[in-house]
């Protein structure tokens, strides 16, 4: 599907890196990067321009075990020095660091120089509130310029930021503020979504009421609405900044100094707070961008995301470390119409565009004419992450958005990884839904139940060596971190995804291993079933889950959202069940196939299959903090017999 030209290969960052180090092929680069991590990661640091205030004495320290690997021991740095300060010395200072578009249509641009000044002012504002190194600051903000400013200001003074989804309810926010013992919460009065104002301050107040560690709430006036106010605790963002003395100097820190605690939803119980550090998360984010997406200095990168998803901090820190321009967007991708994203690409000359596969499925269902209406020639690379692709949306994205000339860089990893384990790239041939393989330095493998490497069959995705972006554990819960990732096989990271390596060397991920459906001994990934369903012209989206079956152990249940104008008839129901049976085998014919108006998703349009299953079976749903559309739960529950 994608065959890179010699010119594309020659100018790519990944191949330039390979040639610079005298390696004959990408395979040789991958092999050496894994065998010699103490060569590869310093070489990457140099390639990306990460700056240390004091050089490191040891690249990798495993004295506490592989689970607690420490990188670049003896060095000092602050990531703001590499993301902002170094760009102020040349022409990049006057280039845009950030382009923001609000849902109503307003646009704001900040150059690197302007962003630096904003960060200095807000760092001073945090200092006036008594924020000290190691204090935690919650970021309950929409995707606005101030979100990037606040993140960098926290990093400058050694505070630890806690990103929070803009759609969280009070309980989800409170759980994270309590666990992280946050001292300050940053929030907005509200933001725009689907043409409506969404209140934030009242949600923040309810969370802070049960979070005794929070001493201050700083309120950004995004929409200009009247909000409740508690004197002494609440502060107006602009007034606080105006009265503060700017802080221009970065606090020089050890490489493993905490930068961020970012929470991932647990299937049961409380969310997990992944701890990331100054010399880890930003380096991994920039690696993904440079050697996966081929982002160059001066290029414009847009990933449709929220600050509460890992891709929010990933976008901010990765793009700035590379001297690129990030695009932030506040609202929904189909407001006021289904061409909103494509118009943004044209208006801002976006070069690299990243989305979730579910978002593409949704926009594909709106029609081919919407991307065709806009000039998309600025696009050079497309990308996707968050869940497995289905072939039809992948091909639609390639053809109708990329014009058949832009590779789709598939990326899979996670919050605890700080980015990608496997990725596509611009220099390797790619088939629909595939990955070229592990990113350099990532010692990924696929193993069977005994932990033995397998090829050509489905197994567990694992990582056999540490990497700088690896989480430094869960916040104040060391044992849960060890139990989650390191307890199956000694010294091996178990990621929780089913994957396989095909005969042609391409890699595929089939979905979470805890989402796997097992019908009469046959193991099935949800994406395999969903791909069959969304290939039908009547289907917009689908979710497949396993439900208990006395005879087979599990049977297949499918929940389908139809395209506009389609009749949810019994005939169509049977046609779709038959289609799955014909494609995957008669034993895998869905026992249940129900039409629903919507599927439960995160703010980033990722389908929550575990929630679909739990609601249908009337079981506890676990953490719903990232759920964007609670009404979908009623739609699923209504199908119960």
Topology (SSEs and partners):
Blueprint: H1 6-11, H2 13-20, H3 26-35, H4 37-48, E1 58-61, E2 70-73, H5 79-83, E3 96-101, E4 107-111, H6 112-128, E5 136-140, H7 145-156, E6 160-164, H8 170-180, E7 184-188, E8 190-193, E9 196-199, H9 201-208, E10 216-220, E11 234-236, H10 237-243, E12 258-264, E13 272-277, H11 281-292, E14 300-303, H12 311-321, E15 325-329, H13 340-348, E16 352-355, H14 357-364, H15 369-372, E17 381-384, H16 391-401, E18 408-414, E19 419-423, E20 437-438, E21 444-447, E22 459-463, H17 478-485, E23 493-501, E24 507-512, E25 517-519, E26 522-524, H18 526-534, E27 539-549, E28 553-562, H19 570-584, E29 592-595, H20 609-616, H21 631-637
Parallel strand pairs: 3-15, 5-6, 5-7, 7-10, 10-11, 14-15, 14-16, 16-17, 17-18, 28-29
Antiparallel strand pairs: 1-2, 3-4, 8-9, 12-13, 18-19, 19-20, 21-22, 22-23, 23-24, 25-26, 27-28
Helix pairs in contact: 3-4, 6-7, 6-10, 8-9, 11-12, 14-16, 18-19
Strands ordered across the widest β-sheet:
4-3-15-14-16-17-18-19-20
Largest sheet: 9 strands, mixed
In CATH, the topology of one domain is named GMP Synthetase, Chain A, domain 3
Low-confidence parts lasting 5 or more residues at pLDDT below 50? none
The counted number of beta strands is 29
CATH superfamily of one domain: ANL, C-terminal domain
The CATH class label of one domain is Alpha Beta
Query: How much β-strand is present in the residues?
Result: 15-25%
> What overall geometry do the principal axes of the alpha carbons give?
globular
Please report the distance between the alpha carbons of the first and last residues: 44 Å
What structural category do the secondary elements indicate?
A: alpha/beta
Helix count? Answer: 21
**Mind telling me the C-alpha Rg?**
24 Å
Helix content: 25-40%
Mean pLDDT: 95
Named at the architecture level, the CATH assignment of one domain is: 2-Layer Sandwich
């Amino acid at each position: 599907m994608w065959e890179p030209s010699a010119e594309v290969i020659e100018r790519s960052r990944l191949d330039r890196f390979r040639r610079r180090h005298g390696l004959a092929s990408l395979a040789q680069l991958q092999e050496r990067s894994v065998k010699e991590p103490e060569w590869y990661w310093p070489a990457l640091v140099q390639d990306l321009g990460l700056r240390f205030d004091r050089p490191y004495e040891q690249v990798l320290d495993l004295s506490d075990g592989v689970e607690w690997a420490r990188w670049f021991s003896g060095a000092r740095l602050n990531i703001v020095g590499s993301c902002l300060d170094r760009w102020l010395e040349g022409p990049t200072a006057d280039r845009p660091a950030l382009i923001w578009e609000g849902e109503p249509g307003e646009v704001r641009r900040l150059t690197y120089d302007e962003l630096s000044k904003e960060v200095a002012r807000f760092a001073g504002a945090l200092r006036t509130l008594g924020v000290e190194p190691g204090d935690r600051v919650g970021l309950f903000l929409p995707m606005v310029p101030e979100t990037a400013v606040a993140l960098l200001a926290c990093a400058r003074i050694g505070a630890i930021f806690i990103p929070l989804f803009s759609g969280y309810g009070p309980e989800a926010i409170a759980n994270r503020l309590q666990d992280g013992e946050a001292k300050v919460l940053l929030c907005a009065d509200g933001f725009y979504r689907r043409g409506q104002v969404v209140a934030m301050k009242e949600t923040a107040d309810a969370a802070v009421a049960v979070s005794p560690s929070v001493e201050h709430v700083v309120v950004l006036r995004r929409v200009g609405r009247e909000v409740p106010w508690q004197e002494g605790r609440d502060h107006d963002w602009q007034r606080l900044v105006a009265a503060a003395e700017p802080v221009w100097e970065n606090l020089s820190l050890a490489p493993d100094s905490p930068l961020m605690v970012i929470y991932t939803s647990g299937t049961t119980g409380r969310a997990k707070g992944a701890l990331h550090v100054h010399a880890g998360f930003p380096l991994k984010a920039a690696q993904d961008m440079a050697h996966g997406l081929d982002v160059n200095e001066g290029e414009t990168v847009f990933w449709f995301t929220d600050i509460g998803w890992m891709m929010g901090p990933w976008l901010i820190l990765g793009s700035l470390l590379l001297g690129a321009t990030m695009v932030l967007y506040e609202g929904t991708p189909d407001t006021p119409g289904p061409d909103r994203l494509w118009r943004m690409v044209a208006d801002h000359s976006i070069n690299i565009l990243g989305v979730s596969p579910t978002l593409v499925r949704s926009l594909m269902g709106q029609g081919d004419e919407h991307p065709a209406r806009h000039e998309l020639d600025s696009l050079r690379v497309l990308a996707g992450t968050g869940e497995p692709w289905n072939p039809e949306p992948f091909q639609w994205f390639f053809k109708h958005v990329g014009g058949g000339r832009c590779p789709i860089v598939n990326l899979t990893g996670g919050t605890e990884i700080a980015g990608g384990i496997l990725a596509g790239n611009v220099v390797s041939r790619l088939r629909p839904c595939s990955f070229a393989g592990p990113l350099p330095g990532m010692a990924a493998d696929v193993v069977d139940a005994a932990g033995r490497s397998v090829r050509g069959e489905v197994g567990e995705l694992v990582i056999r060596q540490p990497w700088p972006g690896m989480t430094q554990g869960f916040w104040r819960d060391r044992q849960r971190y060890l139990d989650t990732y390191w307890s199956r096989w000694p010294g091996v990271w178990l990621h929780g995804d089913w994957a396989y390596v095909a005969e042609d060397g391409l890699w595929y991920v089939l979905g979470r291993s805890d989402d796997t459906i097992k019908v009469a001994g046959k193991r099935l990934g949800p994406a395999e079933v969903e791909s069959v369903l969304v290939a039908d012209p009547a289907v917009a989206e689908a979710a497949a889950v396993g439900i208990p079956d006395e005879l087979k152990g599990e049977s297949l249940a499918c929940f389908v959202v139809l395209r506009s104008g389609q009749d949810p008839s019994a005939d169509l129901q049977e046609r779709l069940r038959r289609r799955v049976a014909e494609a995957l085998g008669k034993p895998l014919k869905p026992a249940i196939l129900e039409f629903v108006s919507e599927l439960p998703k995160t703010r980033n349009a990722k389908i929550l299959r575990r929630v679909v299953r739990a609601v249908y079976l009337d079981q506890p749903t676990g953490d719903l903090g990232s759920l964007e559309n609670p009404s979908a739960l009623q739609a699923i529950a209504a199908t119960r017999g």
